[in-house]
Amino acid sequence: MGLKQKLHTLKEKYKGTKMAPAFNALHTFLYLPNETTHNGTHIKAADDLKRTMNIVILALVPCLIFGIFNAGYQHYSAIDETLRQAPLANFFTWDNFIMGCWTVLPLVLVSYGVGLLIEFIFAVIKGHEVEEGYLVTGMLVPLIVPIDIPLWMLAVAVAFGVVIGKEVFGGTGMNILNPALTIRAFLFFAYPTWMSGDKVWVHGAVDRQKEILAGANVDAISGETILGSYAQNTTSIAYDYWDMFWGFIPGSVGETSKLLIIVGALILIFTKIGSWRIIFSTLIGALTMGLIFNGVVSAGWIGESSKFFGLMNVPFWQHLIIGSILFGAVYMATDPVTASQTNKGKWIYGFLIGFISILIRVFNPAYPEGVFLAILLMNVFAPTIDHYVIEGNIKKRAKRLKAKTA
Amino acid sequence: MGLLSKKDRKLILDPLADDNPITIQVLGICSALAITAQLKPSIVMAISVLFVMGVGNVVISLMRNIIPSKIRIIVQLIVVATLVIIVDQVLKAFAYELSKELSVFIGLIITNCIIMGRFEAFALGNGPWKSFLDGIGNAAGYGVILIIVGFFRELLGSGTLFGFKVLGDSVEKTGLYAIGYENNGFMVLPPMALIVVGIIIWVQRSRNKALIEEN
């Protein structure tokens, strides 16, 4: 008896009981169910919710693998500065991989473990099928948190994000806010010391700091992100543009490699799962805001002593390769549930995300990044945008009708 | 049977649960979000509102037949304002620190919609004794929620209760903090208070399905 048949009999056995949705989910996750529908005409489509989710996960896997290597690389190169001389040669090494697995995989496990447990509990209580929505969220979460976030904090945040961000609205497809970003926002506001600063982005930096405070005679590790350096008006950045593009820089686990994010974006656009309208308009919005700030600087309206000067002075195109704007645009803003649904709405929605992201990035006094805040904000406004786009269309057509009949 | 008749008891007990001003009528939310970061101000606020509502309802009820209906809102406002000034002065005299902490929110009891709501809905049409019971019932219902929210926000947000470090010292790393626990900074911010109130509403409605509206 194959696994499929076993799962099927197990499912039949528990049919009608409270645990039924849990077994059903396991079964359909792995295989096509045995049952066929009995009435009506149905369209058979290959890209059901599970396939859609799986493609997004597939697009995320390169980022995850790169993140694993990068976690190790950042750790070792923070201890031994000479490694940075030749990032490519020192990047894909076993040491980095093992260290990365040791730090990144627990994040993945906690994210999926807690999230899916809550999904299962809710499915059993409500008596509906387990929803697939968490598959992608669970993969996104480890990629958007700092490497050294304590696991219990992540667990609390995931529980909060899934329950308050999604389940209270009625589960997958009904949520107003992107659950992964809700989780990140929760962490950001609840435990800010673990989400910002120059110590959390490199594994071991926080522990090292504690040892130094306890009197150990070791060098401190600093893992300042590029945005963090700019925010302090540092003009010399330790990384060149190619480092930023390839991703050999400190940052949240999965958002550093711009190249692999672009690969992911191509997968999403090619399979028509992610909306290219949103991705492009987000980038256009970010560039626009960057240009405005550059204009302000070159017009001389802001002095070099201003605390915003460092970030305003960043060349506008560089905003795309530092920070998480690209990751946010590709994987977060395109979430079909929380984004705008109309085509025109998508342009507006994406543009405003990019625009506001850079605005918050420059002006946020506590934390020089604003992508997740901008996306959450626009999530809230997405239905409003859609409403006005549809209203506008109705009005336009009504007018045309009048002109024709008159 | 005791002190209160069945009807009177209903006046007091209903607002505590099934007709709670905050969780069912969704009134008085602003103050519930603003001053519940700690338990002590929550309790002081609850007591202040209890006083204002209890006395205010009686006063309005006594005057209900002589208030011209055209200016009744102004009369109500004067009654609340007078009572709130009394509360404010008492706090300033005997608990200055607390009154500074509650700052403008004591004054804003005047605009607490629960109070005006009960004046309009109950005190103008009922006798003083009933109005009194209704007043303290609603104020208690308001206070209960305030105290629950305040309890969780102070415990999880600051790790203290009434200022006592019940979870250990977060600087010295004793108690829970020794094993890596940290305070949840989000709890101190007002948005989390709204979420806590939301969770209370959720719990209440899942326990009593009759409260769920048809839509």
Describe the protein in words.
The complex is a heterodimer of chains A (406) and B (215). Chain A has 406 residues and is mainly α. Chain A contains 18 helices and no strands. Chain A folds into two domains: 49-213; 274-406, no CATH class. The radius of gyration of chain A is 23 Å and the shape is globular. The model of chain A has no long low-confidence stretch (mean pLDDT 84). Chain B is mainly α and 215 residues long. Chain B has one domain (27-207). In chain B, α3 runs antiparallel to α4, α3 packs antiparallel against α8 and α8 crosses α10. The mean pLDDT of chain B is 84. The A-B interface holds A 150, 152-153, 156, 164, 168, 186, 189-194 and B 180-182, 184-187, 189, 191-192, 195, 198, 202.
Write the layout of secondary structure elements.
The complex is a heterodimer of chains A (406) and B (215).
Chain A: H1 3-13, H2 20-30, H3 49-79, H4 87-91, H5 94-126, H6 133-143, H7 151-165, H8 179-190, H9 192-195, H10 205-213, H11 226-231, H12 241-246, H13 258-270, H14 276-298, H15 309-312, H16 325-332, H17 343-363, H18 371-405
Helix pairs in contact in A: 1-2, 3-5, 3-6, 3-13, 5-6, 5-7, 6-8, 7-8, 8-18, 13-16, 14-16, 14-17, 17-18
Chain B: H1 6-13, H2 29-34, H3 39-63, H4 72-94, H5 96-102, H6 104-107, H7 113-121, H8 128-158, H9 185-188, H10 190-207
Helix pairs in contact in B: 1-8, 3-4, 3-8, 4-5, 4-7, 8-10
Which properties best describe this structure?
heterodimer, A: 406 residues, mainly alpha, 2 domains, globular, B: 215 residues
Cα end-to-end separation of chain B:
39 Å
N- and C-termini, Cα separation of chain A: 73 Å
Large-scale geometry of chain A: globular
Oligomer: heterodimer
